[in-house]
Design goal:
The chain has 319 residues and is α/β, with parallel strands linked by helices. Helices cover 39% and strands 17% of the residues. It folds into two domains: 202 residues, 3-Layer(aba) Sandwich (Rossmann fold); 91 residues, Alpha-Beta Complex (UDP-galactose 4-epimerase, domain 1), CATH 3.90.25.10.
């Protein structure tokens, strides 16, 4: 069995990826978590079937020890400060987690003389300011990030390319567009709205839903399609290359809201909250995934309507 290392295994994507590997008997799963009291709630389905190691990737010594002990055959680098609005409030922490953490991981792999296949979770936020004549966005589009998070992911992305070129490390860079589904954190837009609807249905919030920018457009992929793409990227894609992961279909936030409101029988007032508006927002993130699909045969299988319904049902069970 191949040894599979997933950084940030207890997070939204990391936990779904762990489930995918275990359910399909693809390898022995090892994962890193950080903090003195990390949450394992996302890993309920696979606890006892995976090996969990405490490691903050910002700590080079700890990272080196984990890589040395596991000697992984495949590495999925998912761990990150991934919430865009938080990157304005904590830009230094975002840069440290996403850039220094990645650098330490690459150095640990290099120093231990192992040669795993490596997938790194970059982001569509790297594209940032996109002009109307540039959509759908291809991998060759200029990178004009509009947030500290976007900048941190550009740095991580280019570090991956540099380590491939300099040391021949088998790194594949994936730029996933928005992804959602059960277990998505309540900070993220569609999950946040779904949670508010669930609270309203339970009488725990007055029938008023707070929103931010409703004109922005996003390309949403179900998290289960995303982790399947990550596995394919690590095992079938070309090292050194970068690939968009998306559906090729976008929705305005207003359309997402309308879709969600049709899933409840409650009459809900919509209020725009200035606190939910970003200093600079990416207006359109619509991806072109043809390069990845042509090379690997992957394609998205789950509709966004189903994704949104599963997210709402997830919150209905928990609020």
């Amino acid at each position: 069995m191949k040894k599979v290392l997933i950084t940030g295994i207890n997070g939204f994507v990391g936990s779904h990826l762990a489930e995918y590997v275990i359910e399909n008997n693809l390898g022995e799963v090892y994962g890193t978590v950080r903090g003195k009291t990390p949450s394992y709630v996302n890993l309920e389905k696979v606890l006892g079937k995976i090996s969990i190691m405490s490691c903050d990737l910002v700590d080079a010594f700890s990272t080196d020890n984990v890589v040395k002990e596991i000697q992984p055959d495949i590495v999925f680098h998912i761990a990150a400060q991934a919430f865009v609005p938080a990157s304005w409030k904590s830009p230094a922490e975002t840069m440290s987690s996403n850039v220094l953490g990645s650098l330490n991981l690459f150095e640990a792999i290099r120093r231990n003389n192992i040669d795993p296949h490596i997938q790194i979770a970059c982001s569509s936020e790297e594209y940032g300011l996109v002009h109307k004549n540039e959509v759908p966005i291809k991998e060759t589009n200029p990178l004009r990030p509009l947030s500290p998070y976007g900048v941190s992911k550009v740095a991580m992305d280019l570090l991956g390319y540099q380590y491939f070129k300099s040391y021949g490390m088998k790194i594949v860079r994936t730029r996933a567009f928005n992804h959602s589904g059960p277990r998505r954190g309540q900070e993220y837009v569609d999950s946040n709205w779904a949670r508010q609807v669930a609270l309203i249905e339970k009488g725990k919030q007055k029938p008023e839903l707070f929103v931010g920018n409703l004109t922005a457009r996003r390309d949403f992929t179900h998290v289960r399609d995303i982790v399947r793409a990550y596995w394919v990227a690590a095992t079938k894609a070309t090292p050194g290359e970068v690939y968009n992961i998306c559906t090729g279909k976008d929705y305005s936030m207003q359309e997402v809201l309308d879709m969600l409101l049709k899933m409840t029988d409650k009459k809900i007032k919509i209020t725009q909250d200035p606190e939910r508006m970003r200093p600079s927002d990416v207006q359109v993130l619509l991806g072109d995934c043809s390069k990845f699909m042509k090379e690997t045969g992957w394609k998205p299988e789950i509709s966004y309507e189903q994704t949104l319904k599963e997210t709402l049902d997830y919150w209905r069970e928990r609020v």
